[in-house]
Each structure stands twice: as C-alpha cells, then as structure tokens.
Amino acid sequence: MGAWSARHRKTAVFGWLLFVVLAAALGSAHGSVRITDAESVPGQVSRAARILDEAGLKSPAGETVLVQSATRTADDPEFRTAVGQVVAAVNGTGRAAEVRSPYDTKAVSADGHSALVTLTLKGDRTEAADQVQPVLDAVAGVQRQHPDLTVVQLGDASSGKWMRDQVGNDFARAEWTAVPLALGILLVAFGALVAAVLPVVLALTAFVAAAGLVALGSGFLHTSGDASSVMLLVGLAVGVDYCLFYLRREREERAAGRDAATALAVAAATSGRAVLVSGVTVVVAMAGMFLTGIATFKAMAFATILVVITAVLGSLTVLPALLSMLGDRVEKGRVPFLAKLRRPDAARTGGRFWNAVLTPVLRRPLAATLLAGAFLLALAAPLLTMHTAKLTFQQQLPAGNALVAASQKIEAAFPGSPAPATVVIKAVDIDSPAMTAAIADLKAKALASGRMHGPVEVTVHADRNVATVDIPLNGTGNDATSNDALRTLREELVPATVLTVPGTEAPVTGDTAGSYDFNRKMGDSMPLVFGFVVALAFLLMLTTFRSPVVAATAVVLNLLSVGAAYGVLTLVFQHGVGASLLGTAGVGAVESWVPLFLFVILFGLSMDYHVFVVSRIKEGHDRGLPTRAAIADGIRSTAGVVTSAAVIMVAVFSVFGSLSMQVMKQMGVGLAVAVLIDATVIRGVLLPSVMTLLGDRNWYLPRWLNWLPDLSHGEPVPPAGADRGLPAQPVGPTEGARHRRAGV
C-alpha cells in the first residue's frame, strides 16, 4: 500500500483530502442521533423510559429552590416574603409549568429554618438546560434582595446547563492545549518544523473524517457526547503515534544512506506493518465493548474503531505519498539548537539515557525482572480495595462548586436520597379499584419499610393508563443504603402490591436505579469483555510473530501495566492520596465505566509499543543476530521513537486529567499513568529482561502451529551500520537448527 501511494502521490493525497471533506460534509448534513434513556442500559430503567415514551409522556425537568435562614424560621414574615418573591419571580419568567410553595407542600425542614420551593420547567427534559437561565436569574434576583437569607437553586436543568457549558469550555481548552503540546514535542523529536507538523495535521484530518463517519453511522448506532470525547482523545494520540513511527523509520533509513525510494520501502515493510498490526489490535480491543450491551459503550467502541481505522489508513496511504513528494524537504524548518542537542547516532544507539538503563538490565536480567515486577505489583496493590460507582453530580463537580454547595445544604436540611426512585406503572385500567388500592398499599408499605421516606408523590395519567409513584430512598443515592432500599422496593414491595393486579408492568427507575442497573450490567459483562480482548490479542500476537511465547509475554506485560494503572487510579481518586495535586479530592469511588474503558483502550494502545519494539527485535533476529544482540539492537533503535510517542500520549492524556469533571480526570490520569509505565518500566526494563531470560525460546513455534501464516513482508534491507557496536556472534549449527524449528 505504501509503495502504491509513493508511486501515485497525487492520487493518494487528493483522494485523502476528498475523503476527509466528503465524510465531514455528509456527516454534518446528516447530523448525530443521540442515545435515548430508553436504550441506555438494558433493564428496568430502559423499560420505564419506553413506557413513558410510548404513552407520549415527556418527563419534565424538576428544580428546587432552597430558602434558608440561620436565625429566622419559615413562619417569620420576612422568610414568608422571600418565599413569595421566589414563587412570583419564577412564575414571571414564563418558563415554569408549575411552581409549588413549601407552605402548600409542607416542604419545611424539621428545625423550621429551611423551606423548598419546587417547580417543573415547560417542555421536555432534554431541552430544559436551554430554558433554565431566566429562572436562575430570577432566583438570583431574590437572593440579592435578601442578603441575610440563603436563596439557591438546584435541579436537573441547572446542573445540566452547568455541565454542558463547563464540558464545552473544558474540551475547547483541551483541544487548544493538546495540539500545541503534541506539536512542540514532535518539534523536539524531529528538530524540524515540517516533520513535526505532518503527524499533527494527519491526526486532525483523520479525526475530522472519523467524526463525519460517526455522525453518518449514528442513524443505526446512536452516539453520545462521551463517544465524541473519547474519539478526540484516542484519535489524536494514535494518529500522531502512527505517523511518528512511520516517519521516524523513513528518516532513519535516509540518515543511514538509503535512497528515498528504498527508505520508503523499508519503512512500509517494517513500521507500516507494525502500524497495521497495532491498529488491528486496538480495533479488536475496542470491539470488546460491544459485548457489554450498554449503548454508551457501543457508541464509544464504534467511534474509536472508526478513528483508529481512519488514522491507520492515513498513515499507510497519504503519509508515504507526502514523504515521496517532500523527499528531504521534510527536514525544512530545522531548529538549530535542537539539532545540536541530539547525538548523530541516537536513533541507532538509543541515546545516553536508554543505554544507561539497558546495559544493567541485559547484564542482570533476572534481578531487573524481579525488581520491575515487584514495583508494578506494589503499584497495583490498591486495586484490591477498588470500589466502583456511577458518580453523582456532587462527586463529579469540583470542590467548592456552587451547585455542590447548594446540594449539601439541601441534604443537610432534608436528609435522604437527592432524587427519588420512580415506579412507572402501566395497567389495563389505571383507575380500577384494584389498582387504586394497590398504589395506596405501595405507598403505605414504602413508608413502613424504614428504608424509604416521604413525601411520596403519585401522578396518574388516566387517559394513558399510566401512573408514576415517586418514592425518596434513604442514603446518598449511590451508597449501600440507597441500593438496599432500591432492592427492597423492586424485589419485595412492588411485586407484593401493584404487580398483583393482572396485566400490570411496574419497572422502577431513577438515578439510583440507573446507577445500580449500570453497575450490575458492567459487573456481569466485564469477565466476558476481558476474556474476549485478552484471547484475541493473544491470537493476533501469535499470528503476527508466529510465537506463543512472544504472544503470552505481550499479554502478561499488558496486564501488569493495566493493573498498575488501576492501582494508581484507586489510590488517588478513591482514597485521595495526591489528589490535591490534580485540583481534586478523593470521592470514595472510581466511576463505574472507567476501569473497563481503560482496560480496552490500554490493551490496544500498549500493543502499539509492543508490536513496534518486538518487530524491530525480530528484524534483527531474522538477519541472523543472536537473540540477546537482537534485543539490544531492537530496544536501542526504537527507544527514541517510543519515548517521543509516549511523551505525546502522556501529554495529551494529562490535559484531560486537568479538566473540571471528575470522570475526565480519572480517565486522563489513568491513561497517562499507564502509558508512562508501559513506555518506561515495561518496554525499557521488563520486556528486554524477560526476553533475555527466555533466549531462543522466544521464537519457539510448536510443529502443530506451523500452519500459521507468515505475515512478514519479506526481508527488509538492513540499515547501514545496524550491527555496529554489536559483538560478532555467528550462528552455529545448534542455534540455526532452533531457528528452523521455530519456523521464523
């Protein structure tokens, strides 16, 4: 493919540009179809959403206004005046469908110093964030009139608006920070402006094209905001890395004295093949998320697969064409002082740092293996205490946020779950005496259970034969107390009351129910996803290198890398160790979808480095170098590009770790830590030490696996000076026999 692109340069370049423009234009014209509540998580929550949708009942966004005084009670005239002004001001906006005074609903705290004005906004919940600003302004106006009182608003729309605006600002900042960071690192790596710009431009165009394809595909596989975020994160990282691998190899061959055509041919046969295998591995890993059955994960998997395929396609087609066009002009815009900092032979020898690391590792491989393994196991140890949960918005938002402060004040004055569980009842005749009695019985049993509390609100839609019963649960909403209350409601109270009426459906939904169903579905699917990804990654490595030993080594090292990342994630975000350095605090849990997401992403991305490094080691081995010499040559010759690629990934992921939302911090830090560990401890210490200990057993292939296809692209031309500095160790008869048996 690379050779064809080099021969048909204009066709490849203009074909790529046409593809990007068409994908973006068609995607924009089609628009994105978003995941709905009815399809988000299989189970009672989605069934409840489907019943309401089929009945044409739109769930309005609810808001609460807290009026509170440290000295006055709700009966005080000034307190009553403030409450009345809130009701009048909100009604005056024309955006509220219903406003209820606490003096009508009895929503006054036990100590009498707090009261809640409840309201619902007009229109659908999905549009509420666009409608809530006038209401927020009205409430703020009452607060200014009564500085001695606390008048604050909280609800679905106000929190949704804040999150939407903040996430938009965060991602705009991330985009404007990550791209210059990647460009700066590439400039240091190449020392030339053109060579540095090329990978960034290709990565961005791949992302634009993939975004258009995701929008087009959302007609049959709905997408989400999380999917777009992940696509940007992964697309920028792998897009730059793939181009970097290819470009560095081509430059290395040119520096070794090869002509332009030969340098491109060698890069295509080596780095091009490594990019293809790495891309396939990432795609396979991401495909594992389809097995969860969760719509958000399916959207993430689809978006990431498309951006990785697009990045691989660009690296294997338009990049060789551009390199063929530019020739040595790719070195234009050289920065003089950067060139002086690099040793001329650094590309082959790995530079001073990696030589200093690798020399003792190869001299004492057993000690290096034990020390590095112990270090990674120590990092992974906190994993044993990991607790996952679907974080509440109080946990998601940064400390000191006004919405969090309002929530804490409401929770202190009115203890209990911040959002009720809702029983959605669909009956043959919702007004029948039997159903009316069953609903009353459900209400009474809920209050008598000791795990739920009032006020219990019943809303009947007689013309739709649907009713909703809102029952506040004890606990914080996602703790064990709330989950126990939810199970009691679902497994005992609902079956014993409303479900005794024939022909009735009564799924239980709400924030707690959504979190519980999501976590349960995640727990059930994780072993299947993990097994799928590990098994297919093993098979891919086995097919690529024709060695079960190399494949098993890759899987074990990747599992160690992921385990260490999990341990750091638990230590920082669950237990709060070092969290203040990231501008956050321990929230007592890791977001429930983050571990699975990190696993599939990291398993795919780690293979980038593994395939690239081991491919180079195998090149040396296939040229006749002894295994130890091939390992030394492979690690040293790839150290620079792996370091550059890792620094770019860590920088991009760290930007996401600096965003406001807790889940973005967890995702960014988890990915950054794992990539850093993988590129240093794993590839620089454990991989060479383990392969050195295994020796020629690395290339062992049982006879019954001789049917495996040989995916090598012929013998690449060895770069000039490839054997410089390596001891001359001719292959003896015994070693040669082992090579033949391995089928290499």
TrEMBL record:
Domain SSD: 196-325
Subcellular localization(s) per the UniProt record: Cell membrane
InterPro entries: MMPL_dom, Mycobact_MmpL, SSD
Protein's UniProt keywords contain RNA-binding: no
Keywords on record: Cell membrane, Membrane, Transmembrane, Transmembrane helix
SUPFAM superfamilies documented for this protein: Multidrug efflux transporter AcrB transmembrane domain (SSF82866)
Cellular compartments per GO CC: plasma membrane
Ranges for region Disordered: 716-744
TM segment ranges: 176-194, 201-221, 227-247, 274-295, 301-323, 366-384, 525-542, 549-573, 593-614, 635-657, 669-694
Domain of life where this protein originates: Bacteria
Topology in membrane: Multi-pass membrane protein
Identification of the protein by name: MMPL family transporter
Organism classification: Bacteria, Bacillati, Actinomycetota, Actinomycetes, Kitasatosporales
